[in-house]
Amino acid sequence: MIKGILAATILSSLMAGPVIAAVTGPVSTNSDALYPADQLMTGDDRWGCELLLCLANPNGWKSVSECHPPVEKYIDCSTKRHNPCSMPGCPQSGEGNYAQRNDGRYDPCMLLGEGYEEAPRGYLLQGVLSSSEFSRSGGRYYAKKRSKYNYDGEYESCDSDGHCTTVHSKACVKPADYQGVAYERYSCKDSDGYSRTCYRQVRVYSAISWQNAQPPRAIDVYIEGKLYNRVHY
Q1: d(C-alpha 109, C-alpha 175), whole Å
Q2: Report field, pTM of the whole predicted structure over 0.85
Q3: Are 108 and 70 in contact (CB under 8 A)?
Q4: DSSP 63-122
């Protein structure tokens, strides 16, 4: 099953040498069929290669029944409080093809598709400046709806008393979607403590993709030295 799913996608660039010959034949439910009989892998080497194959599956490792034992084995041992295991390597994977642990809650924007990048930190607003969502006066655009602050990941915010909280958010954008700057009205206080109306700049994009926070455990899969996939667990 693993062979049938991966051979047509990324396996040709992922596995080189003896192992590739074993994944071009008919699909087999016997995991030994992944390797030539005279070069059958065992132990952590075999486990590492099975992990790499399964985690690189674009349909997800859970979609392949043979992937459950090696991946669940790693999840169980890597989450132990005492003496957690490390990610086993695959000696036949070739240079630049590997998996490694990552504790980030947010995925890199590049995984969303071509052209996406991390949005700049600050206030962001989705819209089109020429639309009715904005007014114009004195050569400036003014927003009629509220913006959202992009922390570009996790950020620890502390008040004057030293009390700290962790806030987080992450937005992905395409540079081609950038509209320009608008001004947003908000309530602030002057030096005497009286409330008044202030304005702040917000960056406007015609499309913004806000990411959802994921569990803080993940595995990054690299193919030919480039991040190919991130699997949260």
Answers
A1: 12
A2: no
A3: no
A4: G-GGGHHHHHHHHHHHT-SSSPPPPPP-TTS-TT-EEEEE--SS--GGGG-TT-EEPPSE
